[in-house]
Design brief:
Elements lengths: L4 H16 L1 E2 L9 H7 L10 E2 L2 E2 L5 H18 L3 E3 L5 H12 L5 E5 L15 H5 L1 E5 L10 H11 L3 E4 L10 H11 L2 E5 L4 H5 L6 H4 L2 E5 L10 E5 L19 H13 L5 H14 L2 H23 L3 E2 L8 E5 L9 H10 L2 E2 L1 E3 L13 E5 L1 H5 L4 H16 L4 H15 L8
Parallel strand pairs: 1-13, 5-6, 5-7, 7-8, 8-9
Antiparallel strand pairs: 2-3, 4-10, 9-10, 11-12, 12-15, 14-15
The chain binds D-serine.
Length: 426
């Protein structure tokens, strides 16, 4: 068969783009060769609807073993009693939790998207906001940190069935204990979406959501550094609070409801090649080497946020506890939108994403902020001292964002800095 050069040329170009640039998108990372190899393996050929030992297809004896290894490693890594590794993404994992725990039209509560939440936590353009009644909590304007009093007050008024902690652009640790108290007080289930800080939580560097939440969801490709995908975890399995019964009349466990909600509820055949790659990544995350990596991610983020603040940037909440920071551009550049900043930096081969900041005066398409994270550059081997070099370059580009010479010179410096660094230096 003829090689499909149209696509493989593009893959090569994408490899070059990734190799020569500085990747600061907080939700991205670079996987190891063995994670990549598992994803590109013959496991992709196999249909395996169902779960290990209970499939709707023959020939699943091998993928049963790899999926079981993925499940066992996920349980070990997070201290969970139960795991489902089949969700194709974080949003799919969240959708399955909604399906297991709510009826269409029920109320739930998540962090406002404009304050750092996620699309699937109640945005009106997402299934979560379209099919369910979403209420939200925000951060405090003065501190940029979650307003737990507001969360409690709105939860008591709105009586949501689920309260979701976690988001996409929040740089501080979450008070899972307080959230569990609020959930218990208003009769809600507490769901932690730890997609972003997943690796930091797994290694014990942030409070373990699995200890406090009824249900935890995560992606596998952000700080965890695995293939693109999702998982659902239960710290402890429990009887579902609605008394749903099995055909034999027994009360169903939450694990049973969640398994059914993933398949056949919201997905068909699992991606067994991705599940094999999840198993590999989870195995990597169990090592001390990964712990050293994730500690470096945090050190780099802390240093980077200090460098930004030293240059007069407003970092929301005044710093970071995790792998990312949210920068409000308005105090330093009142006229510049996040979109303009993103475009200028991308032209210099520094990839970031524009992001709404809390109480933003601009739309989601323009924004007043940038979200910056260190998981990917840390995988490439960059350390604290490199952070000030990067912030200097970012500042220079933003101070001269229409100057093509400055952008071109910065791009050369970026490309030189990254040229001898493999994508995966660990
Ligand atoms: N869009 C992802 C992020 O960048 O955080 C979350 O799904």
């Amino acid at each position: 068969m003829q090689r499909d050069t149209a696509i493989f040329d593009l893959i090569q170009k994408e490899r070059e783009r990734q190799t020569k640039g500085i990747e600061l998108i907080a939700s991205e990372n670079f996987v190891s060769d063995q994670v990549m190899e598992a994803m590109g393996s013959v496991m992709t050929n196999k249909y395996a609807e169902g779960y290990p030992g209970k499939r709707y297809y023959g020939g699943c004896q091998i993928v049963d073993q790899s999926e079981t290894i993925a499940i066992e490693r996920a349980k070990q890594l997070y201290g969970a009693e139960w795991a489902n590794v089949q969700p194709h993404s974080g949003a799919q994992a969240n959708m399955a939790v909604f399906m297991a725990c709510m009826q269409a039209g029920d109320t739930f509560m998540g962090m406002d998207l404009n304050h750092g939440g996620h699309l699937s936590h109640g945005s009106p353009v997402n299934f979560s906001g379209l099919m369910f009644k979403a209420i939200s909590y925000e951060v405090k304007e003065e501190t940029g940190t979650v307003d737990y009093d507001m969360m409690e007050q709105r939860a008591m008024e709105g009586r949501p069935k689920i309260i979701i902690g976690g988001g996409s652009a929040y740089s501080r640790d979450w008070d899972w204990k307080r959230m569990r108290e609020i959930a218990d007080k208003c009769g809600a289930l507490l769901m932690g979406d730890i997609s972003h800080p997943s690796g930091l939580i797994a290694k014990g560097h942030l409070e373990n959501a699995v200890k406090y939440c009824h249900i935890v969801t995560t992606t596998t490709h952000k700080t965890l550094r695995g293939p693109r995908g999702g998982m659902i975890l239960l710290g402890k399995d429990f009887d579902n609070p609605w008394g749903k019964k099995t055909p034999k009349g027994e009360i169903k466990k939450m694990s049973q409801l969640l398994d059914s909600a993933v398949f056949p509820g919201t997905q068909g055949g699992p991606l067994e090649h991705v599940i094999a790659a999840k198993a590999v990544a989870l195995g990597e995350a169990l090592t001390d080497d990964y712990d050293r990596y994730i500690v470096q991610v945090m050190k780099n983020a802390k240093r980077m946020s200090e460098c930004f603040m030293n240059k007069g940037y407003k970092v929301i909440s005044g710093g970071t506890d995790n792998h990312l920071m949210l920068i409000d551009l308005r105090p330093k550049f009142p006229e510049m939108t996040g979109k303009e900043a993103e475009n200028a930096l991308v032209a210099a081969d520094i990839t970031v994403n524009k992001n709404m900041v809390p109480f933003d005066s601009r739309s989601a398409f323009k924004t007043s902020g940038l979200r910056v994270g260190t998981p990917a550059i840390t995988t490439r081997g960059l350390k604290e001292d490199d952070m000030s070099v990067i912030v200097d370059m970012i500042d220079n580009v933003l101070c001269n964002f229409t100057n093509e010479d400055v952008i071109a010179k910065t791009r050369n410096t970026v490309n030189e800095m990254m040229q001898n660094r493999p994508l995966f230096a660990w």
